């Protein structure tokens, strides 16, 4: 039997898959004004960096069959999670989603007091008023498994940046998670890893890979390395996360759009496009990691809901920062996403899953069956 790890919604019109659909123009969008959100870093803040077109903000995800999920209600979410913690764990794409999520909450309670902490590997945004009291965290853990960085020396710079660590060696311990205790203390956790496994050359993030007693300079099959690391993570979740306390999600694989030939527009990049791909089907090749991810999730004993956002995001060649990732326009980013933008839809579907039936959140669901949410 084919594994179906989609979260689904059921209404009087029948069974409807959140993740099959198309983008439709909606004048009521975006869900918030990004210029009013205090949490967006410069590299995601396309409007403040001078992006002239605004049409990319006006598209709403519409699942096939017409059974749209309920509109995001930030105040409802805050009320549900008063006194609780939500954490995003992963790479800079998780950071992208975390920032979007915080902006959506802020738009619902714009006059609320908040504090922020920006550190590595932890950052947080805390809405501190007693009637809200919700904490939204980001744990920078791009591989989910351990990346041990062995310092060579510490270099003094100046009073503003008092030291720089020069690294002797970086070891990716593909079979080890030793810093996961933080994940057990939250009420909702959203995991992600993908892009860093495929960085090579100067942007590769390890010097060697360790798997048990074996050490490798590198692994040629990066997809196999990803599968091994993801299996380490899934085993850890099954052994350590209490599903009665913590609801677990996996943010699906976020695509990139650096080469227009991949979707039928040769000699272009994301910077040359201002509208989505029409229809429900991405014309390029599937992301190879999706099948690996679903296979790993299907073998887990714990209940993990997959936010299967890959295809819907592949259709949004127009929604990356491109040259508007900084005000100098010295870089082109076709990997991250503008905020406001596509990550808002990811969080909309996260919300729709969270407000589903309580019983779908508190016991194991057979991964061979659809996860039903009404």
Can you offer a commentary on this structure?
By secondary structure, the chain is of the alpha/beta class. 20% of the residues lie in helices and 23% in strands. It has seven helices and 16 strands. Strand 6 and strand 7 form a beta hairpin. It is globular and about 60 Å long. It starts with 6 loop residues before the first strand and ends with a strand.
Major β-sheet annotation: 7 strands, mixed
Number of helices, counting only DSSP H or I runs of 4 residues or more: 7
Structural class: alpha/beta
What's the multimeric state?
single chain
Q: Identify the overall geometry.
A: globular
Average predicted confidence as pLDDT: 87
- Binned strand content: 15-25%
Into which percent range does the helicity of residues fall? 10-25%
Which ranges are low-confidence, i.e. pLDDT below 50, for 5 or more consecutive residues?
1-14, 357-374
Outline:
The chain is 20% helix and 23% strand. The protein has 374 residues and is α/β, with parallel strands linked by helices. α1 (74-80) crosses α2 and α2 crosses α6.
Task: Summarize the SSE layout with pairings.
Elements: E1 7-11, E2 14-17, E3 21-25, E4 59-63, H1 74-80, E5 85-90, H2 92-108, E6 114-118, E7 122-127, E8 134-140, E9 146-155, E10 164-173, E11 188-191, E12 208-211, E13 214-216, H3 222-240, E14 247-251, H4 289-298, E15 304-307, H5 310-314, H6 342-354, H7 359-362, E16 371-373
Parallel strand pairs: 1-16, 5-8, 5-11, 10-12, 11-14, 14-15
Antiparallel strand pairs: 1-2, 3-4, 6-7, 7-8, 9-10, 12-13
């Amino acid at each position: 039997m084919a594994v179906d790890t989609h979260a689904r919604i059921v209404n009087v019109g029948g069974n409807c898959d959140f993740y099959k659909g198309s983008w439709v123009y909606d004048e009521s969008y975006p869900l918030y004004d990004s210029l009013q959100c205090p949490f967006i870093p410069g590299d995601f803040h396309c409007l403040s960096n001078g992006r002239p077109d605004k049409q990319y903000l006006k598209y709403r995800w519409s699942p096939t069959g017409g059974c749209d999920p309920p509109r995001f209600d930030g105040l409802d979410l805050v009320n549900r999670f008063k006194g609780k913690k939500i954490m995003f764990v992963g790479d800079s794409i998780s950071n992208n989603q975390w920032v979007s999520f915080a902006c959506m909450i802020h738009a619902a309670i714009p006059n609320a007091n908040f504090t922020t902490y920006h550190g590595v590997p932890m950052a947080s945004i805390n809405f501190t008023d007693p009637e809200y009291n919700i904490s939204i965290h980001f744990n920078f853990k791009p591989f989910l498994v351990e990346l041990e960085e062995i310092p060579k020396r510490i270099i003094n710079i100046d009073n503003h940046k008092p030291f720089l660590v020069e690294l002797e060696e970086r070891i990716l311990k593909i079979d080890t998670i030793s810093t996961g205790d933080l994940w057990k203390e939250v009420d909702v956790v959203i995991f992600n890893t993908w892009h860093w496994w495929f960085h090579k050359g100067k942007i590769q993030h390890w010097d060697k890979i360790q798997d048990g007693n074996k050490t490798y300079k590198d692994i040629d099959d990066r997809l196999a390395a990803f599968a091994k690391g993801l299996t380490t993570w899934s085993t850890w979740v099954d052994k350590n996360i209490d599903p009665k306390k913590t609801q677990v999600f996996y943010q699906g694989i976020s695509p990139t759009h650096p080469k227009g030939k991949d979707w039928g527009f040769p000699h272009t990049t994301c910077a040359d496009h201002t509208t989505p791909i029409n229809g429900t089907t991405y014309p390029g090749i599937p992301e190879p990691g999706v099948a690996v991810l679903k296979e790993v999730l299907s073998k887990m004993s714990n209940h993990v809901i997959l936010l299967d956002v890959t295809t819907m995001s592949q259709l949004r060649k127009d929604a990356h920062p491109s040259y508007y990732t900084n005000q100098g326009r010295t870089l082109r980013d076709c990997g991250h996403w503008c905020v406001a933008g596509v990550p808002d839809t990811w969080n909309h579907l996260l919300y729709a899953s969270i407000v589903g039936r309580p019983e779908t959140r508190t016991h194991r669901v057979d991964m061979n069956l659809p996860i039903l949410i009404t």
